[in-house]
């Protein structure tokens, strides 16, 4: 692997990023029944203005207006009010509530306003035709990268694939130094578009754009996506090249082991899968190579423990005893030095 692809040994330990690289936001219609006060004595009900929630509480626009009057900065109330109109298929009234919320919530309540913008983006993606306008407005007064990531997630979730790809391409140009943006797009290319060739091109582009200190984590993400969605052999090749370059990075070895073992032993139904002899031998070989670099005792203990747990799950009594004997010999070698 070329030198300009790998970060130096002095970088921070690898942070293993799980598939939730992008934080999953709730759907726009949420249940905020606990926030709604039940005061039937002061409420005049009209048939077209009420809904009955699961707790048999009557909720009306008057209830929401009363709550807003006392807690105008609470985005949860505004979002529940928006959902009230969406449940009645009244998009225009829902939009009016969203606009009122943005004007009413105090300017210093940044997170509360952000919640409204995210809700508004969700609503337009699901039901409306003004997503682009709301997206641009949200960019003006919020963290731009957060807005891009959220909108990308919503488009992906709702299978708006043309808009999704266009926005991803726009994002990698705008945030060319962001590993999170590149990783997000790379994952989408693997698990949504199933485009391995273009995913490989995007990986190369990301390494050209990102600062060198972010290269290693980017390659690990690429390997993980290959394992999970596309080509396990290519993912394995990425890791093998990395450990050749950085054999003393224990965090890299552990990440390789975790991803490789999980890819073979876990399926969507979470059923236990027994490995064949070839697969067992390959994983044992990784453990052997890992141990050969004589890490500090604390790390060596973790390696032996991890290997023994693996043998208890996939091996037999003989293989477990073999690992225990290796551990005993290592401890004896340490005692001999004292």
From TrEMBL:
Localization annotation: Nucleus
Origin: domain of life: Eukaryota
Entry GO terms, CC: small-subunit processome
Main location: nucleus
One biological process term in Gene Ontology: rRNA processing
An example molecular function term from Gene Ontology annotations: RNA binding
Ranges where the Pre-mRNA-splicing factor Syf1/CRNKL1-like C-terminal HAT-repeats domain occurs: 73-333
Signal peptide: none
Annotated SMART domains: HAT
Keywords, alphabetical: Nucleus, Repeat, rRNA processing
Keyword Metal-binding: no
Protein name (database record): Pre-mRNA-splicing factor Syf1/CRNKL1-like C-terminal HAT-repeats domain-containing protein
């Amino acid at each position: 692997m070329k030198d300009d692809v790998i970060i130096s040994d002095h970088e921070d330990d690898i942070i293993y990023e799980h598939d939730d690289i992008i934080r999953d936001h709730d759907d726009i219609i949420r249940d905020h029944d606990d926030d709604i006060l039940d005061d039937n004595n002061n409420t005049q009900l009209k048939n077209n203005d009420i809904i009955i929630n699961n707790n048999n509480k009557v909720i009306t626009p008057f209830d929401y207006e009363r709550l807003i009057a006392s807690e105008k900065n609470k985005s949860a109330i505004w979002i529940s009010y928006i959902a009230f109109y969406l449940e009645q298929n009244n998009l225009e009234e829902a939009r009016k509530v969203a606009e009122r919320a943005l004007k009413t919530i105090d300017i210093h309540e940044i997170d509360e306003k952000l919640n409204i913008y995210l809700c508004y983006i969700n609503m337009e993606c699901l039901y409306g035709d003004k997503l682009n306008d709301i997206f641009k407005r949200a960019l003006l007064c919020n963290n731009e990268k957060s807005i891009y990531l959220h909108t990308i997630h919503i488009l992906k979730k709702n299978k708006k694939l043309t808009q999704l790809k266009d926005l991803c391409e726009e994002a990698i140009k705008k945030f060319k130094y962001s590993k999170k943006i590149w990783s997000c797009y790379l994952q989408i290319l693997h698990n949504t578009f199933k485009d391995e060739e273009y995913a490989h091109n995007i990986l190369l582009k990301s390494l050209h754009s990102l600062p060198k200190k972010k290269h290693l984590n980017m390659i690990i993400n690429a390997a993980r996506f290959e394992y999970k969605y596309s080509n396990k052999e290519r993912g394995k090749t990425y890791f093998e090249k990395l450990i050749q370059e950085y054999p003393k990075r224990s965090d890299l070895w552990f990440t390789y082991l975790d991803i490789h073992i999980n890819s073979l032993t876990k399926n969507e139904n979470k059923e236990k899968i027994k490995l064949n002899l070839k697969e067992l031998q390959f994983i044992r070989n990784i453990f052997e190579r890992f141990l050969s670099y004589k890490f500090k005792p604390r790390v060596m203990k973790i390696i032996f423990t991890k290997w023994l747990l693996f043998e208890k799950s996939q091996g037999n009594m003989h293989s477990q005893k073999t690992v225990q004997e290796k551990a005993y010999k290592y401890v004896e070698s340490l005692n001999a030095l004292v």
